[in-house]
Amino acid sequence: MPKNADTKVTEVIEAEIKTEETAAAPKKRGPKPGSKRGDKAAAKKAEKPAPAKDILVQIWDKEIDINRVEENIKSQFVAEGHRAGAIKKMSVYIKPEDGYAYYVINDKFEGSVYLY
Question: Contact 21/13 with Cβ under 8 angstroms?
Answer without folding.
Answer: no
